Amino acid sequence: MTDHLDTYQQLKQGDYQDASVYMASVKQRIERQDAAALRQRVEKVLLREDVAEIVTVTVAEDGYIDVVLRTEYEDGDELVSLFRLHIADNQDPEAWAYDAAEYRNRNLLEDERLEMQQAAQTVECITYFDLDDPQISWMLQLAVLDAVAGECYAVQDMVSGQFFSGTWLAEMAQTHTPPSLEMAYVIHVVTPENDHADDFWMHTHGLLKFGMPELEILRARREQLENFQNLINSVSQMMLDDNDIWQTDEAITCAQSEQGMVSMRLMPWQSALRSDLLAPVKKGLFKRSIERFNGDLGERADDDVHSKPSLVVFGDNDGQMVPLSAFDQALAADQHLMFMLPNAESERMHWLAQEKLPLLASCLKRHPPIDDAWTYIMKICCESEHTGAVEHMWFKVAHMTDTELEAELLNEPFNIPEMHQGTVYVLPVSEVTDWCIYSEPLQKRITPDDAFHLRRYLNAA
């Protein structure tokens, strides 16, 4: 067995994962050698119902701070987690310069981006997620970083390279529903030298924190990028829900188009580059040669980052692995596509939407959807009385009370014949599974995952 297959085997067995590393640029200096004061800071995490005990807070000789927490679950199980923190003088202000966040700005507020360079200190927090429930570990890490760092200008995910708002970190520290997996990884798109070539390389950074392989799509076209991004999200959510799904040779059904179900298959990038599924072949008089393309072996030589375990996404056609080009029509930009999510992700979205719904309700009360300045869209779980089918569909909200909302259906259902696009329905607020606000005054699209924008706006207004 080759080395790369050994690495995938370690990943399957839970013996391989990346650390999760976040770094914050802080507004107020921290006395980093005062263990008692540090423990007092950490005690903020006890405000969370999911933290049962701070086991230890110790300052090592090398300056690292070790925080051990014990979490109790409703079923009686418990989790003991270690977080290593390091408080240091800001030796590299340029890493926090305004331009440093260009193309990596996940949700920085403009004033935070302007001011983050002036931080005198940074706080780094490192942990390895518990692979039985990595999302709990992730939430706890953000809560510990917030507690120790205090008020922050900004936060960097050192694995994905993304910048996050310090206000977002404070919001996450008091949130009991995990953020979307999409907040934990980034999709890089490598552009071909010839902008018209079918040679965009999409690949993720950040999934290995969760004990999952990274994902990539090779030889994509520009018009496919948005749908392929949704495709990667769908597959990654299914892997998070069932880590065995990528370890078998089974197809993964991840979308429904007007032409039917769309399924994918996965292959380690090392094997994919040796296959006949990607590389165009030039035929000469005496030999055949393979054309170079983005993401081929030449792009990864001596590259530790892009040589880690990663699976290339292909299509599935009646049990056969085929290039994604075989699904050009089904995945076309003008197709009505519904991307699949596992039940666990639908439940997470439901609980986060419900947890942050009071913020939307306050905003709607202050700014009713009278014109296009404020538009409120909600995804609602609907069940057909005739077919028993369940679909999560988007509605445009006109009115809302504590228990009901009046809203217009924005798309035609697949399997609910009694409901139709453009019709207004009265629906229960308890069935809201996602929402977003389009705000012209704020020039933002706000979702439950970035509700900190809304809280800050409402508090300031």
Features:
single chain, 461 residues, alpha+beta, eight-stranded mixed beta sheet, seven-stranded antiparallel beta sheet, 10 helices, 23 strands, 23% helix, 31% strand, globular
Describe this structure in words.
- With 461 residues, the chain is an alpha+beta fold.
- Helices cover 23% and strands 31% of the residues.
- It has helices at residues 3-12, 35-42, 110-115, 134-149, 166-173, 225-241, 269-272, 297-300, 343-366, 452-460, and strands at 20-26, 53-59, 65-72, 78-89, 121-127, 152-157, 163-165, 186-190, 200-205, 214-220, 252-257, 260-268, 281-283, 288-290, 310-317, 320-322, 338-339, 374-383, 390-400, 404-409, 424-428, 432-439, 444-446.
- Strands 8, 9, 10, 11, 12, 15, 16 and 17 form an eight-stranded mixed sheet that branches.
- Strand 18 and strand 19 form a beta hairpin.
- Helix 4 crosses helix 5 (166-173).
- The longest helix is centred in the C-terminal third of the chain and has 24 residues, at 343-366.
- The termini are far apart.
- The model has no long low-confidence stretch (mean pLDDT 90).
The average pLDDT score comes to 90
Secondary structure class reads alpha+beta
Shape: globular
Distance between the amino and carboxyl termini: 63 Å
> Tell me about the biggest sheet?
8 strands, mixed
Helix content: 10-25%
Strand content: 25-35%
Question: What's the count of strands?
Answer: 23
Identify the quaternary structure here. Answer: single chain
What are the segments in which pLDDT stays under 50 over at least 5 consecutive residues?
none
Helix tally equals: 10
Question: How much is the radius of gyration in Å?
Answer: 24 Å
